[in-house]
Amino acid sequence: MSTPSGNSDQTRRDIQQTRAELGETVAALAAKTNVKSRARSKATTAVGGLRGRVTEAGQSAKTRATQLARTVSQKVSQRVTSVEQKSQHTIGAIQGSAKAGAQTTGKAESSVVTSARAMTTKIGSSVRTQPLPVLAITGTAATLAVITYRHRRSR
Questions:
Q1: Backbone angles phi, psi at 2, to 5 degrees
Q2: Domain count for the chain
Q3: Per-residue three-class SS string for the chain
Q4: Which of 110, 119, 128, 137 can bridge 87 by disulfide, Cβ–Cβ 3.0-4.6 Å?
Q5: Is residue 138 one of the residues assigned to a domain?
């Protein structure tokens, strides 16, 4: 029995196609049974997702830190301005007291001491509300006032 050449070619193509399909099926089954490869694939996916979340959290933290720094800077600037104004007022009051004290004989020192005590009380209340900036600026102002008083007194 001889088969026509057309039928044998068709049969060969069918066999090749069946072999290809069988090969794909075997490869798919092998991939499903390859636990190591599947674990690597899942790990890679998980790592990628984790990296994305870490990057997002880092950017969020950086943005929040920048916002907080701006807010703190603005508040410090406002307090410094307030303390500067109060210290200028205090310096003026101390200078006025020093002048008044220098004009009166004998009572000059007690007048300055009284004035200094009053200013100390006033500064104390300011320090309770805004401790650090007030202490720094008021200390500088008081030092300047004492130096000015002593300098004028020694003339």
A1: -110, 145
A2: 1
A3: CCCCHHHHHHHHHHHHHHHHHHHHHHHHHHHHHCHHHHHHHHHHHHHHHHHHHHHHHHHHHHHHHHHHHHHHHHHHHHHHHHHHHHHHHHHHHHHHHHHHHHHCCCCHHHHHHHHHHHHHHHHHHHHHHCHHHHHHHHHHHHHHHHHHHHHHHHC
A4: 137
A5: yes
pTM over 0.70: no
**What band does 1 get if pLDDT is binned at 50, 70 and 90?**
very low
Q: Which domain holds residue 96?
A: 17-154
Tokens linked to 139: 């200390």
At 122, the amino acid letter reads K
Measure the CA–CA gap between 40 and 48, rounded to whole angstroms.
Answer: 12
In the chain, the amino acid numbered 112 is V
Record the tokens describing residue 151, joined without a space. Answer: 């300098």
pLDDT interval class at 3 (50, 70, 90): low
